[in-house]
Fold:
Amino acid sequence: MRLTTCFSAAFAAAAAMAAPAAAETKEVWLYNWSGYIAPETVESFQETTGTRIVLDTYGEADEAEARLIARGTGYDLAVTASETVGRLVNAGAIQEISLAGIPNAAAIDGELMKMFLASAPQAEGYALPYLWGTTGIAFDRNAVLERLPDAPLDSWALVFDPANARALADCGITIVNSVEEVVAAALAYLGLDPQSHSEQDLQAAFGVLSSIAPYVRSFDSDQYDALLDEEVCLAIAWSTDGLAPRLEEDSDRYHYVIPKEGANLWADLFVIPSDAKDTGAAHRLIDYVLRPDMMAQATAYTNATNSVPSSRQEISDPGYHIPEIVLPQDLRSRLFFVNPRSGEQKRDLDRRWKLLQIGL
Structure:
């Protein structure tokens, strides 16, 4: 899901590389998270196929969902968050994908796909996975242990226990601006079903969040800079952002953990808008990106788990073979997807989330 500020300059370079070589160059219109496709992939696709990628980007899943439901976008292909796909299907905003034109789809991680479809069965046939990740805790170990020498570093209690949040408030706490994922994490912390939609459970989850809200500096979807610039010492973050300081600094200072109580597993998936003008081009782009070498580029560029396990042999940097990216079975067993909510249920969560942020 998910964007990382440090990629913005490289992403601008990708747009430049995507400039048409000649006036008659074909185009495929892609809607994607900001900074979420490797420049090398853009350049290689154009050189190989003679088709230019025309890119539009977004920074919030809600923004992409609303735009696709509104239609009239002109996009041939979009990448969208797993929790939105069910609502997009129900709204008739996306169309079925033909696997006949995407032979490389045969190599996707079937186990992760089964986990996703178990939570959103209505998405079957309408979406193909691009990248995967988790929503966990990123923190500056030195700053945290200075304030909490006995900190529960492997638990949601590190941030959801008000006493711990209070102790860390001076060095800064930020929470990813994704209500469905954060509520699920609070439910897991409480020992409740993280996929629950019951009103009683939701009240309990918001009770946890309300208790720590006074100590939270921001609710933001871009925590990379805040961590490295020491503006915060702890973030509930997407793994793509949460792992970046650790991978770039190559030190024991920055950590990203998947809490022992369980954590959200998310996917960003290819979908074809219902009013796409060139579905053939969309299928060709999906197939190209799902090549093992392109998937290896995607992981190195975004810090995400890619959809093609055979791509790992293409990744030479040992930093990208860590459990938080590979997601071995012992980690997968404590991961869960956010169950899709109806539009009305999502609007209710959004309302509560906004009230929480303004202290009401």
